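Entry 14. Structure prediction run on the chain below.
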Amino acid sequence: MELDITQLANDYDYIQAYTPIYGSVATLGQGAAKLTWNNAKHNSPFYMFVTEENHQDIRDHFKEYGAWEKEEIDAWNFEELNALLLQDIFSSLTDYLENEDTENFEEWQGNFGGRIFRSDDKKLFYYVGM
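Output returned:
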């Protein structure tokens, strides 16, 4: 499944400056995990990708990570599921945007950036699935 993340990518710098969704202790300090999770939940209504039609595909996507039990994933409401998806997207988007204008971008994308791609009409998409 492909999600159009063009608007999210356009807002990337603003979001990361004021309500960072992605970062580490090295970049955001000791409270990075709680800060980024709360910010992802805060931003979730503005960038809602989870719908009645696709929520099970997104849940299945996260089940493949092996980090959570099936029951835990199934208990997440749409806001929580979408917040985790936002963090997942931002992880890839950060790397994508940092490498997009580099000389070896196509090689980098083939090796590391496979979830995000730009269409011919310049929209950005995120692939959900394994």
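Residues 78-99 form the longest helix (22 residues).
Filed with the rest of this week's runs.
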